[in-house]
Amino acid sequence: MPLLASRLPAALLGLSLVAAGCAAAPAVSPEPAPPTSATAQPASRAPATPGLAETTPPAESPSVTPPAAAPYDGAEPGSGEGLKIGYISLSESIPFVALVSGSIREQAELAGAEIVFCDSELDAGKALACAQQMSVQEVDGILNFQAFAESAPEICAAGPDVPVIAIDIVQEPCQVAFMGANNRRAGEIAGEALGEFIQAQFDCQYDMALTLESPQVGEVNEARIGGFIDGFASVCGEVPEANLQRLGVGGTTDAAVTQVGDALSAIEPGSTVVVMSLNDDMLLGAFAAARTAGREADMFGAAQGADPSSWQEIACNPNWVADSAYFPERYGRILVPAIIDAINGEQVPEMLFTPHEAITADNIRDVYPDTPEC
User: Fold this and answer.
1) How far apart are the first and last CA of the chain?
2) Of 29, 204, 205, 328, which is most buried by a Cβ count within 10 Å?
3) In whole angstroms, what is the distance from residue 293 CA to residue 317 CA?
4) Would you state the pLDDT for residue 312?
5) pTM over 0.90, yes/no
6) What is the pLDDT of residues 183-214, one digit of tens each?
7) How many whole angstroms separate alpha carbon 94 and alpha carbon 43?
8) Is 130 helix (H, G, I), strand (E, B) or coil?
9) Distance (Å, whole) CA 374 – CA 362
């Protein structure tokens, strides 16, 4: 999840967009447009609803060509023998981060490297202390997952002069590489899967498309929702202006229940409603609202994250079409071999994107065997 904004709220919410626990944002309740039947015919991009003016994706041709995958998929056994790798965690209290940390420890153990761990606990002062600790411990390289991009110069200066790989939040000027999600591509994957389903089931005929967004995270929102809309459009054509409502939900399930419930009340029962959600939490709320209104059969949605909260829905709810997975449990398979290469003076790509994959009922138990039974 590349987070280029320097403000803490944006950084933290960007992280939790693919994990539980987003902070609530002010609700944005657009005036609903009367539903008309949408088709695959091109139309202008819908104007932003109130509160989303800064996050409307640019009108451009869909970009659905995936970027080159990071050239790492796990550490070589013994490749880190004798090396000491520093790791500054964002906060172990965040489930997504805990999964990232576990994968780093697992891969470091496989490589035979020592991990010097320090939890910054979402605190710039503690992140600075962590960097100082890395100097004292004389680490050979650092994996830095601290939240304050604006504090990065001071934190870089406090640490040792060793290679640094930033995780999800830029750490200038000392990073030699950045590792995180390709937000736009993740959106495209989910949008393509949803578009293919709507094409197969309804010949791309639908009555309303709802996007569930978090405008406060800025570029993350633009990339994920822009990719989502473009991925869908690559299959079913541009979404007509009259058939698109953009909801600034803010990332949480509870806010989605309220806002989607309000939107559904203005859409005729029996309509086909397509939902594109920035994260799993908001799509969970959307389906909860639909169930409360007796409208679950009307709604077909996809989301991003594929975190454990969504697994049973993906597996068992036929209207939860797909999810774009971020795989925090695999971050270490890229980070550890990359930092070992950097320590050894090898060239490391400046951008290391985690691979994304469409998760559906057909493959979720293969990818996540612990998915609950229906």
Assistant:
1) 30
2) 328
3) 17
4) 97
5) no
6) 899 999 999 999 999 999 999 999 999 999 98
7) 41
8) helix
9) 14
The CA distance from 192 to 211, in Å, is 15
Tell me if 45 sits within 8 A of 123, measured CB to CB: no
The count of residues in the chain is 374
* Residue at token pair 């996050």: 55
Q: For 299, left (φ over 0), alpha (ψ -120 to 50), or beta?
A: beta
Q: Which two tokens stand for residue 224?
A: 């994920």
Could you tell me the two tokens for 98? 């805990």
For residue 173, cis peptide bond before it (omega within 30 degrees of 0): yes
User: For helices 331-343 and 95-111, what crossing angle results, to 10°?
Assistant: 50
Pair 356, 325: CB distance under 8 Å: yes
* Domains defined for the chain, CATH in brackets: 23-67+183-325 (3.40.50.2300), 84-180+328-355 (3.40.50.2300)
Is the CB of residue 210 less than 8 Å from the CB of residue 247?
yes
DSSP reduced 3-state for 48: coil
State the Cα torsion 217-220-222-228 to the nearest 10°.
Answer: -130
User: What does the alpha-carbon distance between residue 335 and residue 107 come to, in Å, rounded to a whole number?
Assistant: 9
For residue 216, the Cα-to-chain-centroid distance in whole angstroms is 14
Residues 27/255, Cβ–Cβ less than 8 Å: yes
Amino acid, res. 257: V
